[in-house]
From TrEMBL:
<dbReference type="InterPro" id="IPR030678">
    <property type="entry name" value="Peptide/Ni-bd"/>
</dbReference>
<feature type="signal peptide">
    <location>
        <begin position="1"/>
        <end position="32"/>
    </location>
</feature>
<dbReference type="InterPro" id="IPR000914">
    <property type="entry name" value="SBP_5_dom"/>
</dbReference>
<feature type="domain" description="Solute-binding protein family 5">
    <location>
        <begin position="100"/>
        <end position="491"/>
    </location>
</feature>
<dbReference type="InterPro" id="IPR039424">
    <property type="entry name" value="SBP_5"/>
</dbReference>
<protein>
    <submittedName>
        <fullName>ABC transporter substrate-binding protein</fullName>
    </submittedName>
</protein>
<feature type="region of interest" description="Disordered">
    <location>
        <begin position="35"/>
        <end position="55"/>
    </location>
</feature>
<keyword id="KW-0732">Signal</keyword>
<feature type="compositionally biased region" description="Basic and acidic residues">
    <location>
        <begin position="216"/>
        <end position="228"/>
    </location>
</feature>
<dbReference type="Pfam" id="PF00496">
    <property type="entry name" value="SBP_bac_5"/>
</dbReference>
<feature type="region of interest" description="Disordered">
    <location>
        <begin position="215"/>
        <end position="239"/>
    </location>
</feature>
């Protein structure tokens, strides 16, 4: 996924922009959960009932309401109410929610021995909003149109994974009756996918919206987002302002019998976006009128708001806490002096004061200390380790010793590139905390703040990438694969577009291990291997993990059945009910 912007908002998959340019982006053992002390008067444990209107108050508009163009619909976001896919995420609290489960398909897929062929069978009784049956051809077509250049923006994996995908230009240009031949539909209920290489995590990829069915006769190209044909419990009846106001009503042809994951309790879902984060949190806090039955899927509480809520017992009951597989870190470019010297990188690793960094990121309620690149969830393969143990406040003496060994006994001067966006992550506050920590080790740090777009362009350019910058990464699904491979697989170094392998690491042993893990269809076994690989890479001191974010979200006093999973750490609106 990419590098979501942290701050008060749900991570926005910035890598979708990068993918489009290339044409080719949630303390150990912590889990995400709904509030344990919610009362029966609207809390997590209250009995849900059907009816009413759920209001969604968001900062970012729900643009590109087309399954081909969405990078990911997320575990709790609006598109998952309209678009069903072959598989979906398990809609449960915490770690249980980090698993793929069947959605349109009868199972999570049947792999060939080497995981290069995956077969799916559709459930009986699946229908679009107009009552017509959903067939395997509709899913194949939905995937094919995601290859069309005019519908770019979605995740790039299928282009890389499917045989022939790298050359296919979508059904608008390719008029052949067979379309993308690596997707076979031998009958109306069967799909067979042929992959270029083993991919044991294909069931996790199949949760993405590109796997949503689209009826060919109803496809209106770039205008499809105005009225996409629903396969889920709700249909779009209004979409104005490019996603600023979206209204969903019940899809009467959706059947709960075919969908064990979505409950569809409210009659209507009214999404209003383009709001200031402080306004959203104030409206959720006050809970007047329709706001009593409101939630947000993209706006966090900030430090000041958390402090205020801490004095209000009733408001504390309405704060959901979640964790997303995501890491903020210092990134080294060894191609730039003096970062090619491992001892310099190690010295900086020892000098970092993670406590001051966490304070700058909003405090321990909003950030957790990181010593591993992988996030602290089992599904990623999290294996606790700290190759350069310096405690929470750093070890400047050890850092000075390493600098001396590196030939810098009198210290050195460096430049740290960061974003000027007020996001409590790559922003000036965090950069200043790093600067102050390194000063104690004799390292003078000059801060180079860039406007956010310039920051992204510079830090993701092979040509212009600085030697030291604040980076961040979030996974497209809960696994070490989409976390480690884009950052450390040498074959994913991109020279002419957005590059995410900041260290430009091209280690044959690392590349080989990535390939070997991708062959595994036992995802628990794969997770253990990802954890071991994380440790191996971490010892190279190519980055300094700083912290993992914590999401704190308010919800209305009349909202019930709060579910927050480790998939993306946000409230799942497919589960909530209102009074």
């Amino acid at each position: 996924m990419a590098e979501p912007a942290r701050s008060r908002h749900l991570p926005v998959p910035a890598r979708r922009v990068a993918a489009a340019a290339a044409v080719v982006l949630l303390a150990g053992g912590v889990t995400a959960c709904g509030p344990k002390d919610s009362s029966a008067d609207g809390g997590a444990g209250a009995t849900p009932h059907k009816g009413g209107t759920l209001t969604v108050l968001n900062s970012e508009p729900q643009t590109d309401f087309d399954p081909a163009r969405l990078y990911t619909s997320g575990g709790g976001k609006v598109p998952s109410l309209v678009f069903r896919t072959l598989t979906t995420r398990n809609r449960e609290n915490g770690a249980a929610g980090a698993k793929a489960v069947p959605d349109l398909a009868t199972d999570t897929g049947r792999p060939s021995k080497n995981a290069t062929v995956w077969t799916y069978t559709l459930k009986d009784g699946l229908k679009f909003e107009d009552g017509s049956p959903i067939t395997s051809a509709d899913i194949k077509y939905g995937i094919e149109r995601s290859f069309a250049p005019e519908l770019s923006g979605g995740a790039p994996y299928l282009r890389d994974w499917l045989v022939g995908g790298e050359k296919y230009q979508g059904p608008y240009k390719d008029k052949s009756p067979d379309g993308l031949k690596s997707i076979e539909t031998p009958d109306a209920k069967t799909l067979v996918f042929h992959l270029r290489k083993p991919e044991g995590e294909f069931p996790l990829l199949a949760t993405q919206t590109q796997f949503a069915p689209v009826p060919r006769k109803k496809d209106t190209g770039t205008k499809y987002e105005e009225h996409p044909v629903s396969s889920g419990p709700y249909k779009v009846v209004k979409n104005t302002g490019d996603g600023e106001h979206v209204v969903l009503e019940r899809n009467e042809n959706w059947s709960q019998k075919t969908d064990e994951e979505r409950h569809a309790y409210p009659d209507t879902v009214d999404v209003r976006s383009g709001l200031d984060s402080s306004v959203i949190n104030q409206r959720l806090s006050t809970g007047s009128g329709a706001d009593a039955a409101a939630v947000t899927t993209d706006t966090n509480l900030g430090p000041a708001e958390l402090a205020q809520i801490g004095n209000d017992k009733e408001l504390r009951k309405r704060v959901g806490t979640g964790h997303f597989g995501y890491t903020t870190y210092l990134a080294f470019n060894p191609k730039v002096k003096p970062f090619g010297n491992p001892k310099v990188r190690q010295a900086i690793s020892y000098a970092i004061n993670r406590q001051s960094v966490i304070n700058a990121a909003g405090g321990s309620s909003l950030a957790e200390s990181a010593t591993t690149f992988l996030p602290p969830q089992k599904s990623f393969g999290y294996t606790p380790y700290d190759p350069f143990p310096a405690g929470r406040t750093g070890n400047p003496a050890k850092a000075k010793e390493l600098l001396k060994e590196a030939g810098y006994k009198n210290g050195l001067t460096l430049t740290l590139t960061h974003s000027t966006a007020k996001n409590f992550e790559t922003s000036p506050e965090v950069a200043t905390a790093v600067q102050e920590a390194l000063a104690k080790a004799g390292i003078t740090v000059k801060l180079a703040g860039l406007e956010d777009n310039d920051y992204k362009d510079k830090t993701h350019s092979i040509k212009d990438e600085p030697g030291l910058f604040i980076g961040h990464w979030g996974a497209d699904w809960p696994s070490g694969g989409p976390f480690l491979a884009p950052i450390f697989d040498g074959r994913q170094i991109v020279k002419d577009a957005y590059n995410f392998n900041h260290a430009q690491l091209d280690d044959p042993a690392v590349n080989h291990e990535i390939d070997e893990i991708n062959k595994l269809t036992d995802l628990d076994a794969a997770a253990r291997r990802w954890g071991a690989l994380d440790k191996k890479i971490g010892e190279k001191a190519l980055s300094v993990p700083l912290f993992h974010p914590v999401y704190k979200r308010l919800y209305g006093k009349d909202v019930k059945n709060i579910v927050i999973s480790d998939w993306d750490g946000v409230l799942d609106i497919s589960q909530v009910a209102v009074k």
